[in-house]
Amino acid sequence: MLLTSAYELLERSPTGRISTTALAEHAHVSIGTVYRYFPDVDAVLDELRMTAVHAITTSLSTAIGRAMDQEPEEAMVTVVESLTAAFEKHAAVLRVSYTSEEIEFGLAWAQVEGPLRPLGRIIPARLRPDLDDAALDDLVFIVMGATASLCSRIALLRPRRSDRTRMVAVTARMLLAAIESA
């Protein structure tokens, strides 16, 4: 209930700043109840961030699993679409993470990326069998970072009148081009 209320407050506030008092009022609990579970607002935000990271990791690993048997362009669209949708679903938490504690979010993103690196090698390894392990690792590192950056840009910063589907397709083609020409 407290985390749901905190997320709702983040969705309403473009600045992403909430207080324990506002959280208690929104959740219809006493301030003591908030402090019983969380020492401060940062602890609430950390919990929301870790929940988002877990959900994004699950979504991305599922997409990579689906993409394994697809043709390269379709596979890349699957991955980009899934990651963009996951970022959109957790936009309020991502926005506050990017604006207030980028270093901490970077560390959290490393937790998403780390376990997925072996899966993230599948598409590049299929397209670039000529690369040795070190070169493939470097390529995967760059492509995973670019994918995260581009998908978060589509999810969080996309102009209102833009075509999301087209942006996802363009991003997928850009990433494929990067893999094929590396």
TrEMBL record:
DNA-binding region: 19-38
Domain (HTH tetR-type) ranges: 1-56
GO molecular function: DNA binding
Keyword DNA-binding: yes
Record's keyword terms, sorted: DNA-binding
Gene3D superfamilies: Tetracycline Repressor, domain 2
Protein's recorded name: Bacterial regulatory proteins, tetR family
Organism for this UniProt entry: Rhodococcus gordoniae
